[in-house]
Amino acid sequence: MLPWILDQTTTALPYFTLDDGDIIMESCDGVAFRLDSLYLRRSSSLFETMLSLPPKNNTGHKGAPDPIILTEDAITLDYVFRALYPVTPSRPIKSPRHAVEVMQALEKYQILIETHNDALSAYIGFLEPPIKAWALAVKGGSLKARAIAVRRFMEAYGDGLEYPLTDLKGVDSWDLMHLLALKKEANSKAQELILILMDTITCNDHRIAPLLTQATANPFALNGFPESLIEEYKKSQKSSCERCTFTARSSGFTRTFRNSPQTRNDVRLELSRLLDQVVDADRLVALLYTSP
Fold first, then answer.
1. 65 lies in a domain?
2. Global confidence as pTM
């Protein structure tokens, strides 16, 4: 297990325990947590079943039955138990590996706390690079984190395989091939979409080369193409050049891409909708497919 990583400015928290707790949970590395069994029962159906079993005779912990040995380490359980008691300070998540372990523990013990699940999903989903975020989301079984990572991966350049492949350790090869195929198909559809919405310019003197390059290499980059760069391109072009235009066909009337913010917004909106469809398609596969 990796040690928990805290900010240098963060005071290390002692492990969570209740002095008047009537039940003891023990981590795989030997840390005992004294807890309130009634609260555990009401917070988790798995704990409800676990604590309904007859307790063993006490052999070492005064005032409580023998501890229930769990398979998680103390750091992971400390986060889980603190999540059950919202009045206690949360332990910061600073390690991707432990973020996955905490997420798996919350799911295992059937603890449905949206605030913690959302925070963990965001932490994992926005890790760099996106391919690493996706791999950890798959390992953690978080559909929310996976959706964030898939969307970011579609917007990124390349297939992500130029990064250390250790990030993909433990990921099923079928899942990875599905992701790469999904990106290839999405890029193709996005390029077709751009051609439908806009005509390509033919004027070599006033060609917006960076814009066309982004549209060809990664069409989803247009979804966040900075307005400031568009303004710079407009300054360098002759407004009277009729050939140097991007025409929005779907609007019903002619507008130029470089002179019409609305046209640019139309393109970005359609690309965003396409990304939503990609994320939904990946979510469906994640729900239906179980790695062997």
1. no
2. 0.64
